[in-house]
Batch of 2 targets.
Target 1
Amino acid sequence: MAKKVTKKKAAKKNKKYVYFFGEGKADGRADMKNLLGGKGANIAEMTNLGIPVPPGFTITTEVCTEYYKNNRRYPAGLNEQVNKALARVEKIMGKEFGDPNDPLLFSVRSGARSSMPGMMETVLNCGLTTKTIPGLIKKTGNPRFVYDAYRRLMMMYSDVVMEKAAGIEPKSDHDAVRHKLEHEMERVKKKKGYKNDIDLTTEDLKALCAKFKNIIKKTLGTEFPDDHMKQLWGGIGAVFQSWMGKRAVSYRKIEGIPEHWGTAVNVQTMVFGNTGDNSATGVAFTRNPATGENLFFGEWLPNAQGEDVVAGIRTPNPVNEAGKTADTRHLPSLETKMPTLYKQLHAIERKLERHYTDMQDIEFTIEDGRLWMLQTRVGKRNGQAAIRMAVEMAKEKLISKQIALLRVKPEQLDELLHPSVDPAHEKKAKQLAKGLPAGPGGALGQVVFTADDAEAWAKKGNKVILVRNETSPEDVHGMHAAQAILTAKGGMTSHAALVARGWGKCCIVGCSALEIDLKKKLINVNGTVLKEGDWITLNGTAGRVYEGKLNLLPADPEHNKWYKELMKWADQVRKLGVRTNADTPSDSATARTFGAEGIGLCRTEHMFFESARIKAVREMILSDTIDGRRNAIAKLLPYQKKDFIGIFKAMAGLPVTIRLLDPPLHEFLPHSEKELRDLAKEMNVKFKKLKARNDALHEFNPMLGHRGCRLGITYPEVYEMQARAIMEAACELKKNKVKVIPEIMIPLVGHVKELEDMREIVVKAAEEAQKKYGVKVPYTVGTMIELPRAAVTADEIATQADFFSFGTNDLTQTTFGLSRDDAGSFLPYYVEKGILEDDPFITIDKSGTGQLVKMAVDKGRKTKKNLKMGICGEHGGDPASVEFCYNIGLDYVSCSPFRVPIARLAAAHATIKKKR
Ligand code: ADP
Ligand code: MG
Ligand code: MG
């Protein structure tokens, strides 16, 4: 027993905690990100590729995990391994850490598996002390550089090690040590009349360093450490501390990153870009991350260190001539200033991209004419760039077509399908407010406050943005007329958000900074006052609001050859069909250009709302005799027929699923007494009688009330008329040689008997219509599966159905027993708290609602092997749900027109992922 324990201890002691890299050889590799973090693994990989990387070592993520397991104590053996690695670096560099004559300096860099905001920032120049400074000055003959490095060390170290990692919370931003030091430096610059940091002289910097020490002591109560080893371990400890820092912990929660992953620490020999004009630092991308163009693209600064390039203290220069724009044409490029080094950098950059087979984001530093690489990682890119890069890389045979498809996230297509705010212009503009990005793309327009105004202004040819506290179904006409919708309240599932998403319209909701005064027609936004007619610009993809007009870049997917190529590949790969939800000929036409292969859901209720029709509808509902109802409904038939002809024509040759009337009857009823009185007059009945009937139709819970096929059961003449209109339209077109594939769908079926009854009515009407026209049009009759009972008895229901279409909006409502319209007050909270991983109305709830769908698919196919099945809820356009639909064996998904390309790509992803 005792022996076993010692053995275990010994094993622990021998565990490798430190991975060395230097002189062309590294202990680690790119695929060791879990152990070495992203930065460390890639540094090791670059070293092994023979790319010049300053030597150093990585302390593993396991140390971080053990550190927290053991009450914030390092594992035994770590110290020894670090010392060994230090000695190896010293040997390579021919210098020693802490040597007063020729000191070696280090950077301490944090590195989790994936880059994580909230982690400790890098500390450069570790090892500068009163003992080593004179030696370094003598060695370099460059006191200015040494004091510049020292003041940077103090700024970074006091901030991230002594304050943040130590858990010291400054009372305000002004009390933070970094702010105080920066303030002091600014004061000196101002006093001396300097514009830039590089104007500071040796004497200035020397005095500044002395001042810094005092400020640090006064602010934090401790001395700035004047010992190289203390600095190094302070830095290492700070990285591990920051793993449990407030910001890192909350970021992990949001991103779902587990705590046990831990972070690694990289200790690396310093190379200096700030020793003079023969030195420089920069960041670059192997292709343009904004356009995707295959062109080395980046920025550099002479005589600068570390993050000066990204920090925006000085305006960086373009690395090459080809990357210059009108704004940067006058600046010096690295290509012309240091041509040999540029060539070397270019060669390395090519090598890295070929090696990683993806666009890389790289950091480099030039010290006295020598190039060093400090980081490489897969670069972030926007949607447009992602598409172009993926397609071009596949054509260059760098990657396969399948990988190219996977490289583009379906959501990234959104950017291409809508006009967008010009990023260059947006960068310069001042943001007015921020809200939730509910509808993609960019839009500009004049502020209006009511739906009626929106419509009226738009009719006069104005571009308007409808601004409201929140929207309701009565606002729909104004929302339609507006370029975009902006609301002060509501979340991602609010009315405004849903409607806008369906149309692919730019929309920002929950923009709480807006104080809207409807009476005065004014908005107060953080002190800025906007009146009716003022111009604003919205970036709906990011949720940002701007005052005035910003440039918009037009959406033009049809002329984007990379997009078209990628979509072609997607269609070749995918097995799942993609249809659209469309109620009008124009929506149908849009969807067709986006690649829809049919209509999965054509709602008919909106066809009842137009002013000429609504009267007949109301007459029908409120009359209490069959004849009265039949009379009224007969007036609707020609309208319905016309609607269907339009849609059938737009979708000629493709299947069209038409859902018979679904919403609760009272939605069609008059709302005001005046409307009711007018109607009474028209119908020639007493107002009192009509009112009584109207009141009787009131429902407490309309969602679970008199709607769906329950209407067809109680008012069979409605469904009969609709079926007749559909089939007469189809027959008429058939006579004109237009191919039509009608699929008639009965909503809200929960019992097979309901469907049986409705089917009989529909078939009878359909047969009569065909007889009348003397032609045959093949048609099918199917049902929505949107109630749990329908899913559970799908085998029975299948006996009466030619197809199933899953209405996952209602199915989600009825499965959870919650109303989507009322969920805004608690559902976001559920998602935030992690009770639900996602909003089940956006991404299908796989283990609940999804299981009901799966059960219905299996049961339905047991009865009818080839029963056609699709989904028409909003989930049809959500990539994760599309994958789920494919995996459980649906034939198609149906979504709003603007999401059709997204669903096509998501379907391709699903096929590729399942194969792997
Ligand atoms: P981040 O993850 O925030 O990019 P890094 O660790 O990459 O942090 O470092 C920040 C900056 O410091 C980068 O510009 C990097 O190139 C530079 N840097 C890091 N280590 C060194 C080093 N050893 N020598 C010179 N510059 C360094
Ligand atoms: Mg940083
Ligand atoms: Mg970096």
Target 2
Amino acid sequence: MKTIIITGITGQDGSHMADFLLKDPNNFVYGAHRHLSVENHDNIKHLKDHPRFQKIELDLTDVESINNALKQYRPNYFINFAANSFVGNSWKMPINHMQTNCMGVLSCLEAIKNFSSHTRFYNAGSSEQFGDVIYSPQDINHPFRPRSPYGAAKCAAHHLVKVYRDSYNIYAVQGVLFNHEGVRRGEDFVTRKITKNVARIYNAFILREPFLPMELGNLDAKRDWSDAEDFVRGVWLMLNQDSPKDYVLSANETHSVREFVELSFKEVQIDGEWSGDGIKEMFIDKRTKQKLVIINPTFYRPAEVDLLWGDSTPAREELGWSPKTSFPKLVEKMVASDLGWPYNS
Ligand code: NAP
Ligand code: GDD
């Protein structure tokens, strides 16, 4: 039996990774979560009675809890998905981002080195590390030019993973993953915020009730969006190479927030058009002239990553990985899920 600790088990990637790994009867998953007064375990409630799944408590800001997990379970794999993952929050809580997303990673590496050196380690890197990009599409060799405390913390963690790999012969990798979304995405992230709001506005249309428009920030930001369920397989492939090497995972295409809005409303047959400029810009229903989207400048960031566009050719060629869900299918799936509609992949 292979044993795997997954941190961030209550989040999007951690829960999808658990589902993926538990399909193999030879895997036993320890799902690591931090203690909260009110549990938020919706993404893993279906695993409650699974015979090869066990929840354990671990907080990335608590070194002892990390040490104890490595000492007690000495797992074959340790997959670190835990993070304060919301970039927008990182200007408000920069120290928390550094403690969780960088020092937490260092604590994991130290614990592996000291108590379980056979454990293969994955840390969740991010395209935010590329930040203020100087060429497109971005591949693994693109320089790190972070634009947020979140991105800076992920860069520092990336360097630490390499240092431990080179210094102590630990199998440690940090995948650099472009944006990946889905039906378990947190509601603060722009894709899920849009699909939840489209569902809300559509339901108001059906019931002929008044509604408030959705409020967004920078509509021109471009991201390379994929389906999170496609990415966990890529992470597992990275963990099972003959020797450790970092890879980019991405869809290899880029789309704006504006396009995501348009496509989401199209899914529910609401035909909108843009009007106005800057903070006066809005998306209006062509038929009723009601406002669907307005700009709220509080969602602008102090520094923006304008364009992310990945090049995952090496992962495709060397690991045999590729994403299955297209951008339009991802939007369709998320809108359908937020409306409770059936969806066929
Ligand atoms: P997510 O849904 O926000 O999940 C983050 C998880 O981390 C949650 O389970 C959260 O637990 C946990 N966590 C936060 N602080 C913690 C702490 N101090 N100790 C232990 N657990 C803690 O994020 P995701 O989208 O699954 O992303 C997974 C990882 O990939 C993150 O490291 C993220 O930065 C990185 N990443 C994500 C993307 C993407 O597009 N999704 C792209 C590149 C990199 P609670 O439920 O208790 O809050
Ligand atoms: N969240 C949010 N809310 N973003 C908005 C909004 C809004 O109302 N309006 C516009 N945006 C823009 C943001 O300014 C950003 O340019 C883009 O939409 C995407 O924002 P998020 O969905 O919050 O994701 P992110 O790209 O900042 O970060 C995600 O991807 C990273 C990988 O590139 C997160 O998952 C990170 O954890 C991950 O590392």
